[in-house]
Design a protein that fits this description.
By secondary structure, the chain is α/β, with parallel strands linked by helices. It is globular and about 45 Å long. The chain contains 7 helices and 15 strands. About 25% of the residues lie in helices and about 25% in strands. The strands form 3 sheets. The protein has a 7-stranded mixed beta sheet with strand order 1-14-11-9-10-7-6. It has a 6-stranded mixed beta sheet with strand order 2-3-4-15-8-5. Strands 12-13 form a two-stranded antiparallel ribbon. It has a single domain, classed as CNF1/YfiH-like putative cysteine hydrolases (4-Layer Sandwich), CATH 3.60.140. The longest helix has 13 residues, at about 40-55. It has helices at about 40-55, 125-130, 130-145, 165-175, 180-185, 190-205, 230, and strands spanning about 1-5, 10, 15-20, 25-30, 60, 70-75, 85-90, 95-100, 105-110, 115-120, 150-155, 185, 190, 210, 240-245.
């Protein structure tokens, strides 16, 4: 796994961006308190502004429900933003697909050779149910992606340093993942990233194609981020997305 640092990013407004071969990834911050809550007018306005800011045609996202449901967006799927799910795949150009988070894990998958992208919202339920694996499987079934060249980007989320869970949930994760408990947990603090890393490695993603932003939404000090736990429920939403040019 490779760690991405501030020097690895471009800064576009309130976003940390990465440009690959014809694909752009963007992770929002809370530097200017710019929140992307799809249920608020200001959130919709901020989402729609991405189209202008990044010079693309449209933006698509799902009604997230903490599931392992994976959908595919094509241009004839007009009302996909009304559909429930937590991962979205597309090969359409000039269309951003993204996910909302405020402690959960945003994951962007890119096959920049075949120009196929996915955006995943992986909370503890999605992580437990291996939503990243479900997404990779669907990307192969629908688009025959090239696993050798496929890249995984794990965005800002509440990390093991700050994510305490119940003893019951701890035992469930240990039993389900078979990851060494001393790696997966520090006390009752869970590493969602270790679960995701296990899934993508077992799927065949090369280590050099796995990237982590290594930013904790709860305790990061250099870059301002929204955190559900830190704000005790009064929180903004981050938006992580990708598009193909």
């Amino acid at each position: 796994m490779k760690i991405l640092y501030a020097k690895d990013f471009n800064r576009v407004l309130d976003f940390l961006t990465i440009n690959l071969d014809g694909v752009t990834l963007a992770f929002s911050t809370a530097e200017n308190d710019r929140s992307f809550n799809r249920h608020k007018d200001y959130g919709i306005n901020n989402l729609n502004s991405i189209v202008k800011d990044f010079n693309i045609n449209n933006i698509k996202y799902l009604n997230q429900i903490h599931s392992d449901e994976v959908l595919v967006y094509r241009n004839d799927f007009e009302n996909i933003t009304d559909k429930e799910g937590d991962a979205l795949i597309t090969s359409e150009k000039e269309c951003a697909i993204g996910v909302f988070t405020a402690d959960c894990v945003p994951i962007i998958i890119v096959d920049d050779k075949n120009k196929v992208i996915a955006a995943i919202h992986s909370g503890w339920k999605g992580t437990y149910n291996s939503i990243v694996t479900r997404t990779l499987e669907k990307m192969i079934d629908e688009f025959n992606i090239d696993i050798v060249n496929t890249k995984i980007f794990i965005g800002p989320h509440i990390r093991q340093c700050c994510y305490e869970v119940s003893e019951d949930l701890k035992e469930k994760f240990i039993d389900k993942t078979n990851i060494d408990r001393d790696i997966l947990f520090k006390g009752r603090n869970l590493s969602l990233e270790e679960c995701i890393l296990k899934d993508v490695r077992e799927f065949g993603i090369k280590e050099d194609n796995i990237y982590s932003l290594d930013l904790c939404t709860h305790c990061e000090e250099d870059i301002k981020l929204f955190s559900y736990r830190k704000s005790v429920g009064t929180y903004g939403r981050l938006f992580s997305f990708a598009f193909i040019k």
